[in-house]
């Protein structure tokens, strides 16, 4: 192959790659409503901020600038101002985004895994196991989650691991209900019954066949749980029971910023705005995904 | 004389059906004392209207649903309970072909993956040879090599059924139960698939149970035919004989309803009355309300399935039999 | 039908029992209240005496049985801090909480449902889009953010409403609004989608095709059928009349159940926390039960399904 050929081929490749990216963008512009596009953009920005928090942060989250306490936003050194100890609000906000997203993400995954496993167990064994799962779901419904977490966190003391695990119990009954229903209908007739008849073990039937088939529905319900967990975590942190200082999260920032509502509202407004925009974006994108992927979930 | 591959004795399956909101459950005898014997490499057709219990019978013969009484023996051994490791291992030796191939296939896996799945489940051949075996199976059922990466919804109905058949044959089973395998397909495709099934069955010496409501299809493929009515076999004979000279009035009606090219439909018997409802079984011979020849004895006593000579059996008071009833 | 009611009742009782047990086990497992109540530097005798006085020296299961027994005789324990009856302390606070939650619930119903139904009947109109947008805003803004924003605007900047306390009716305006906004959004969204689904059903098309007046179609056929999913949400809201105010009471220093819970939890006042949890679970379970029974009444098909 001559070098000219190579060059030609390469340029053809870059061209096709470029048209691929452009094609994707124009596809999105044609098929995604404007508000959903904004939501996707905001979420992508949040994920980037969470990933590169260390590099983006201008100051350490506990670094105090005592000459610049309660500085208002627009300050040359502190774009979003400082708090009562002269800590940079932007730096703390960036770190809070990371912490809150990590907690919400971890908890959403935990709750999806836990709920799906229980739902499958109920579908596989029926009888006593199914009743047990239903009683657990009743229990979850009887004790509002915020109240339960409040009791557990206050009495056991808050730690990051406990917080994620506790949040991981949020909303499991939704996955359990969906997974159970779909698994039962799949094994009653159709592909799952066919695979059983091939001699597959239950593990193979559930993990290799049923799970991939119900995954899109489960992912859609994760977009419902995710913002709720963010709200739950920030609510607990606001009450002083979630993320503990010196670590910071969005709710925790609002909670502490509340003391300075009259003198320095920006401490509270910046994280509040981030919470609102993030949950709003997930709701918009989630609704849109739901319409696209799965009309059976409400 | 070789021993039977599959032997079923006096199988019974009763469903509890609730009528209305708060009605008491009524037992419905979907299969009511059926015995069957199948030799290796033999094809038995099971014919009946919907509701005759033929699909339930097929599932019991494969051990998917356990019978409430009676037993199924495969290669001389009683069938293992569903869900046990032994039962699962047995699946490699007996397979099922479904009526609706789209429902029987996982829509998220390519057909090549699904055809190879029994090999994977039963660890039949080393991993590196599996692809070759899948290719061989695909060509055996008439699927093109380039269709291997397709998903079920990208294939036509006939091609899907070919994939289901290839999957069923992957583990080289000795028994194949086909439940209405072509009734969901276009008529033009039906003959192709049936011929292919017959060829594969002959080449591989697979015993086959072919369940269908369609006499034309069964006639094309079966060595012997059993006719079912309301959960019971009413007549059984070799396929040529039963179509030439049906003895039971129900079989006669069925056979006469099949058009034969070049022959004028004369003396055609059209079944009268309600189609059978297993929840409301008539007294005596279950067929008597629709039978043109029914006499008093038919209303009061149910006929046994008896040998009527020439290796045939029938359950009808009006068909003269050999003296002893066939053992149940 | 009787069997259906009975099985639901049984499940309700089991659930309340599970909550009581869970609360008991978690609270006892999490540390020694004697240490918290008495402080770290008290002599061992005093700790022992405290434990003996409160029965904490007994094995867990003995404490549990004694607790269950006393609940059945109507004794919900005594607050370790105030030495007053826990039940009395809790009941004392309930009116304050209801003073916020009941008006908030009424606001949710009176604004949320009509807005959702109106939006559903005028799909794709300007009003519909507005309702959707406001609804999404309503339930994506956390109540503590909403509360603080309202305080910022009405108390700090405009100075027209008080920011906390319970002295006059003016004090309850901001907490009530804060509490109702999220629920209005949820109800509007649910009513809208329930209504849209019902309006697409063949029987609605039949009803309008056979010449019924449009208002009769909506009131006589569509609304009763759309009511089933809406009732679930409303039931949940009624159930959280007592529990739903924790965050809002904390923002506005409102002396209700939520504040009592937060304070008792940080004081490790076991009897009071248990009593509150039991109360909350009972309200939740009872309202769920009522919803289930209402379901049967609204939708006879469901009754038939669950009955056997």
UniProtKB/TrEMBL annotation, chain A:
ABC transmembrane type-1 domain residues: 97-286
Main localization, broad class: membrane
Record localization: Cell membrane
Keywords, comma-separated and alphabetical: Cell membrane, Membrane, Transmembrane, Transmembrane helix, Transport
Pfam family name, one: BPD_transp_1
Bilayer topology annotation: Multi-pass membrane protein
InterPro entries: BP-dependent_transpt_permease, MetI-like, MetI-like_sf
Transmembrane segments: 34-56, 101-123, 143-170, 210-231, 266-289
Family: Belongs to the binding-protein-dependent transport system permease family.
Protein's name according to its UniProt entry: ABC transporter permease
């Amino acid at each position: 192959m001559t070098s000219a050929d190579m060059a030609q081929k390469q340029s053809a490749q870059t061209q096709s790659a470029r048209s691929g990216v452009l094609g994707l963008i124009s596809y999105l512009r044609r098929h995604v409503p404007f508000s959903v596009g904004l939501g996707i953009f905001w979420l992508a920005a949040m994920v980037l901020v969470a990933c590169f928090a260390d590099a983006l942060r201008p100051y350490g989250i506990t670094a105090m600038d005592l000459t610049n306490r309660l500085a208002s936003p627009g300050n040359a050194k502190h774009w979003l101002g400082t708090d009562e100890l002269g800590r940079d609000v932007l730096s703390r906000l960036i770190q809070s985004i990371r912490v809150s997203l990590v907690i919400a993400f971890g908890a959403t995954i935990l709750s999806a895994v836990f709920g799906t496993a229980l739902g499958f167990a109920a579908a596989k064994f029926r009888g006593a196991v199914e009743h047990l799962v239903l009683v657990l779901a009743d229990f979850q419904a009887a004790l509002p989650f915020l109240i339960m977490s409040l009791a557990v966190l206050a009495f056991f003391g808050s730690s990051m691991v406990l917080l994620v695990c506790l949040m991981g119990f949020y909303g499991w009954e939704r996955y359990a209900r969906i997974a159970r229903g779909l698994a039962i209908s799949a094994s009653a007739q159709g592909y799952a019954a066919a695979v059983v008849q091939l001699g597959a073990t239950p593990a193979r039937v559930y993990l290799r066949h049923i799970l991939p088939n119900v995954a899109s529905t489960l992912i859609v319900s994760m977009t419902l749980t995710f913002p709720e967990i963010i709200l739950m975590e920030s609510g607990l942190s606001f009450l002083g029971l979630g993320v503990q200082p010196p670590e910071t999260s969005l709710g925790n920032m609002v909670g502490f910023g509340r003391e300075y509502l009259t003198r320095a509202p920006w401490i509270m407004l910046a994280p509040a705005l981030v919470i609102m925009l993030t949950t709003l974006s997930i709701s918009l994108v989630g609704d849109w995904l739901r319409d696209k992927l799965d009309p059976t979930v409400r | 004389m070789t021993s039977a591959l599959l032997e079923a004795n006096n199988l019974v399956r009763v469903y509890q059906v609730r009528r209305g909101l708060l009605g008491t459950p009524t037992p419905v005898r979907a299969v009511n004392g059926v015995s069957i014997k199948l030799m290796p490499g033999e094809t038995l057709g099971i014919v009946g209207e919907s509701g005759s219990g033929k699909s339930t019978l097929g599932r019991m013969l494969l051990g998917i649903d356990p019978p409430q009484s009676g037993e199924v023996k495969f290669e001389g051994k009683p069938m293992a309970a569903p869900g046990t490791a032994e039962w699962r291992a047995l699946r490699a030796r007996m397979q099922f072909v479904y009526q609706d191939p789209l429902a029987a296939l996982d829509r998220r896996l390519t057909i090549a993956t699904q055809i190879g799945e029994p090999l994977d489940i039963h660890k039949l051949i080393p991993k590196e040879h599996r692809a070759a075996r899948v290719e061989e199976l695909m060509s055996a059922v008439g699927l093109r090599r380039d269709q291997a990466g397709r998903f079920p919804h990208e294939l036509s109905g006939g091609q899907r059924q070919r994939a289901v058949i290839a999957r069923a044959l992957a583990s080289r089973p000795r028994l194949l139960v086909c439940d209405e395998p072509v009734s969901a397909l276009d008529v033009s495709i039906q003959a192709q698939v049936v011929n292919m099934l017959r060829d594969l069955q002959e080449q591989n010496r697979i015993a086959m149970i072919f369940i269908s409501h369609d006499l034309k299809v069964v006639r094309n493929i079966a060595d012997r035919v059993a006719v079912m009515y309301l959960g019971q076999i009413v007549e059984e004979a070799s396929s040529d004989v039963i179509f030439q000279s049906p003895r039971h009035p129900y079989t006669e009606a069925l056979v006469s309803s099949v058009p034969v090219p070049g022959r004028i439909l004369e003396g055609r018997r059209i079944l009268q009355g309600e189609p059978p409802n297993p929840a409301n079984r008539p007294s005596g011979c279950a067929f008597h309300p629709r039978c043109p020849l029914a006499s008093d004895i038919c209303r009061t006593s149910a006929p046994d399935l008896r040998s009527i000579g020439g290796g045939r059996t029938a359950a009808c008071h009006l068909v003269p039999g050999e003296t002893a009833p066939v053992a149940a | 039908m009787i069997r259906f009611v009975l099985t639901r009742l049984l499940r309700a009782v089991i659930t309340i029992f599970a909550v009581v047990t869970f609360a008991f086990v978690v609270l006892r497992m999490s540390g020694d209240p004697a240490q918290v109540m008495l402080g770290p530097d008290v002599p061992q005798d005093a700790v022992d005496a405290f434990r003996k006085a409160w029965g904490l020296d007994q094995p867990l299961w003995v404490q549990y049985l004694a607790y269950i027994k006393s609940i059945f005789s109507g004794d919900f324990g005594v607050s370790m801090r105030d030495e007053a009856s826990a039940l009395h302390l809790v009941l004392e606070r309930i009116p304050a909480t209801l003073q916020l939650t009941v008006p908030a619930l009424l606001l949710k119903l009176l604004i949320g449902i009509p807005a959702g139904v109106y939006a559903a009947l005028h799909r794709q109109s300007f009003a519909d889009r507005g309702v959707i947008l406001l609804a999404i805003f309503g339930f994506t803004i956390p109540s503590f953010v909403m509360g603080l924003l309202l305080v910022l605007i009405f108390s700090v900047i405009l100075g027209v409403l008080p920011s906390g306390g319970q002295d006059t009716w003016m004090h309850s305006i901001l907490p009530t609004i804060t509490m109702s906004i999220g629920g209005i959004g949820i109800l509007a969204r649910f009513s809208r989608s329930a209504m849209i689904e019902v309006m697409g059903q063949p029987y609605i098309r039949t009803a309008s095709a056979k010449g019924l007046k449009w208002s009769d179609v909506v009131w006589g056929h569509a609304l009763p059928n759309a009511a089933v999913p809406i009732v679930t949400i409303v039931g949940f809201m009624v159930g959280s009349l007592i529990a739903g105010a924790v965050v809002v009471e904390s923002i506005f220093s409102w002396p209700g159940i939520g504040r009592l819970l937060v304070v008792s939890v940080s004081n490790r006042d076991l009897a009071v926390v248990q009593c509150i949890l039991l109360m909350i679970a009972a309200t939740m379970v009872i309202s769920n039960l009522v919803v289930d029974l209402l379901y049967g009444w609204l939708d006879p098909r469901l009754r038939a399904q669950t009955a056997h």
